Amino acid sequence: MKQVYPIVLASGSPRRKELMQMLGLSFETDVSQADEHFAGTPKETVAVLSQRKAAAVAPAHPSAIILAADTLVFVDSDRLGKPKDRDDARHMLQQLSGRWHSVLTGVTVCNTKTGRSLTEVEETKVHFLDISEEEMEAYLSTDEPYDKAGAYAIQGRAGVFIDRIDGSWSNVVGLPMHTAKRLIEALSEG
């Protein structure tokens, strides 16, 4: 993909940075300080939050492509964000154990030169095996669950708990690469 505009990733997430690097694009990061409180349906929530993140950094980057994402985990209609502490992480993992859940990511890409913006929501279904108390306590003793929505990282140690996914693996990590690439390409033309 020919890169016409500078690209700004509106995130400090190391996982999103790694996924962007896999796309082979040069980019800089600018961590959004957008308000992340919104009470809507799961799909509305991730879409609105990704739009807010993009809008928050856009004024500082004229003539650039801004990419922002927001990922949330939902079990039924319960939203699982980043756990507050070990007990919260344990509760989340207990909710996930032996069940399917949804990982939704809202992706917003805007071209600050043209003013055009696109937002899409990607959903991936993930199935966890039953997690024993021993496995759960061992996992909670690592640093991994505490800065991730749903208290797990599919690309980390929690991968052993997952036996099936339906959808994009990179979406579960935090950025559906195919969606990001397509939206960047769409807004980089002309």
Q: Span between N and C termini?
A: 14 Å
Query: Which stretches are poorly predicted, pLDDT < 50 over at least 5 residues?
Result: none
- What is the SS-derived class? alpha/beta
CATH class: Alpha Beta
Say what the CATH topology is. Answer: Maf protein
Count the DSSP helices.
Answer: 6
Number of strands: 7
Rg (CA only)? 17 Å
Query: Rough shape?
Result: elongated
Residues in helices, as a percent range:
25-40%
How many domain regions?
1
Query: SSE order in H/E notation?
Result: EHEHEEHEEHEHH
Main pleated-sheet profile: 7 strands, mixed
Q: What would the average pLDDT be, to the nearest integer?
A: 93
Strand fraction: 25-35%
The CATH architecture can be given as Alpha-Beta Complex
Q: Features of this protein?
A:
6 helices, elongated, 190 residues, Maf protein, 7-stranded mixed sheet, 25% strand, alpha/beta
Structural overview:
It is built from six helices and seven strands. The chain is of the alpha/beta class and 190 residues long. It has a single domain, classed as Maf protein (Alpha-Beta Complex). The longest helix is centred in the N-terminal third of the chain and has 16 residues, at 42-57. The protein is elongated and about 55 Å long. The mean pLDDT is 93.
Describe, in short, the structure shown.
With about 190 residues, the chain is α/β, with parallel strands linked by helices.
